[in-house]
Structure formats: C-alpha cells, structure tokens
Amino acid sequence: MQILKSVDENVNLLILGAGWTSTFLIPLLKREQIKYAATTRNGRDGTIPFEFDPRSSDTGPFEILPLAETVLITFPLQGEGQAKHLVSMYESTHQKPDNSKPHFIQLGATSIWTAPKWQDESSPYERNHSRAIAEDELMACSEGAVLNLAGLYGNARQPRDWIDRVVKSKSDLKGKGALHVIHGEDVARAVVALHRNFTPKKRWLLTDMHVYDWWDLAQDWAIQTLQRAESDIDQGDIPIAKIERQRELLNWVGELMVEEGVKALPRDTSSVGRALDGRGFWKTMRIWPIQGRIR
Ligand SMILES: NC(=O)c1ccc[n+]([C@@H]2O[C@H](COP(=O)([O-])OP(=O)(O)OC[C@H]3O[C@@H](n4cnc5c(N)ncnc54)[C@H](OP(=O)(O)O)[C@@H]3O)[C@@H](O)[C@H]2O)c1
Predict the structure, then answer these.
(1) Which of 73, 234, 252, 268 pairs as cysteine with 170 (C-beta 3.0–4.6 A)?
(2) Ligand 1 atom closest to the CA of 153, numbered from 1
(3) Spelled out in words, what is the top-level CATH class assigned to the domain 11-158+180-211+275-285?
(4) Cβ(195)–Cβ(103) under 8 Å?
C-alpha cells in the first residue's frame, strides 16, 4: 500500500485511523486520484504512526500529520472535551495559506437513534450517548460533519456470521427485529462524496436503504446452509453441529411466526421496531448505494 508519509506535502484527505473502512476507501481514493495520507496507531504498512490521547497536550503527534482539506476521524470520540481537543490540536499545528478551516468528518454509529419507529437524520437521538456528545461537540467547534453508519459489512465481514453471536436462543430470535447495514464500498463512496460536497455541521444517517428482517435472514441463511450441506460439492464438509443449528433456527422462525401471528416473511417494517430511513444523504449527494440485498 503506497501511502503518503511526507508531512511537508498537503493532501486532500487525511484518514485518522486506517482500519477496516480504509480497505475500501483507500482503493477508491487511488482510483479517483484524491491525494491522501493515513494513520494507524503503530504506523503499519507505511502509514503515519498516530495515537490520539485526549489527556495529552503534546503537539508532537499532530505536527507530523500533513495539512488536509478534509480530516476523516474513523475512531470513536467519547463524551465532552475530546472533539474540541482534537480539533484545536490539529488546527493549532496546521494553517492553510488562505486561513480557511479544515473539514472534519467523524464516523459514528446509528445506535444513537433508538426509538422503535421510522427515523431519519433529523429525528431526535440519544443526546446523552457518549458518542453523540462528542459528535455534537465536533460540529459545534469546527467545520465538522458526522456520518452515522449502520452495521458495516463487506469482504470478510458478513452479516450471516453475526447470527451465532446475537441469537443464542429462541427468545433472542424473538427479540430481533430489523437489521440495517451499509457495505464498506458505499461507506467509501459516501466519504468521497462528502469530501467533495461538504455539508458543515450536519449529521447524516447512512444505510443501504434496506430494512432487513432478522427472522427472514435467519431463515434464508439456514436454508442456504442446509442446501449446501446436501449438495454434491459441500457434502461432508459442513460440521454436524452447524447443520443441527440451522435446523434449530429454521424451526424457531416457523414456530415464532405461528406464535406471533406473522403470516409471511419478511415482516412488515411497522412491526420490526426501529426502522431507519437513509435516503437523505444519498439524495443530497446525488448518488445512490451500489450495494444492497445482503445474502
Ligand atoms: N462495526 C460496525 O458494524 C459499525 C457500525 C457502525 C459504526 N461503526 C463505526 O465506524 C467506525 C469505523 O469502523 P471500522 O470498523 O473501520 O474501525 P476500525 O477497523 O476499528 O478502525 C479504527 C481505526 O482507528 C484507529 N484508532 C483507534 N483508536 C485510535 C486513537 N485513540 N487514536 C488514533 N487512532 C486510533 C485504529 O488504529 P489501528 O489500526 O492501529 O488499530 C484503526 O486504524 C468506527 O468508529 C466504528 O465504531 C462500526
């Protein structure tokens, strides 16, 4: 991975925290010829070593960062003070020749919207949520915007792998309503779109514009695995315990549909709790997600 290390060179986009999302963002920046630099905590793969310590006033870690039009913060800032500190440390060590301020983009999560109904980026959110507090502070003290992301998936991160963690019992499945996701490729497209068409002090909600039903997904994935287990190609390759688990999930879904009076899948969005309306960001940026229909 060729990543700009020289601090003397200015960049269009500085990624503070080149983690999972950057595996999609960096290839896009290269394709779009957007000049960038990226950090990790240990400086791996040619990135700039940088760790934000909210308690430290040492400007050293900031001085080695390049001047950027847009600074993308991928790691969570929490509670009061952290966003203000990061912005002031960066702005005090970096001045643009025309004295304009850098744009900050913070990646956040959609978990700040909790009400069990349709919600979009303008809906009330949990103001006491520690990430929301930091996001609000960022937007108050800088030219900051926030992209609150639904569940991230793509490449090795696949929603079907989440089910064993979140559904251990029939009662867990009963409690599962909607799932909202966004593919890493669309997160990358969203960051580039926001960099080019910046919306200061604006919080966005980013989804792939689907409301998935956990029961529907559980049933579909179970059927797919059982079909693979019976196919000539995979016969004998899928452990018995995994096959049993799929049969169990299939039974639970069917039983719950009968017990809860659900006539067909997917359930209506009005009956799966919190439903997120992600149209606003895409409409404003005049692009639409290119990934959807998780399998
Ligand atoms: N997982 C989900 O489904 C989901 C859903 C919604 C939102 N989100 C949020 O989306 C964002 C991006 O997710 P991701 O999966 O790309 O994250 P990730 O892979 O964990 O990447 C975070 C990056 O930030 C760096 N970092 C962490 N703490 C830091 C600090 N104090 N100072 C400087 N750098 C620091 C990490 O450095 P190292 O590379 O050295 O570790 C890493 O490069 C996160 O804020 C996450 O909470 C996640």
Answers:
(1) 252
(2) 3
(3) alpha beta
(4) yes
This prediction has a pTM of 0.96
Ligand 1 centre distance from Cα of residue 263 (Å): 40
Residues in contact with ligand 1 by the CB-under-6-Å rule are 16-21, 40-42, 50-52, 74-76, 107, 109, 149, 151-152
For residue range 126-175, list pLDDT tens digits in order: 999 999 999 999 999 999 999 999 999 999 999 999 999 999 999 999 99
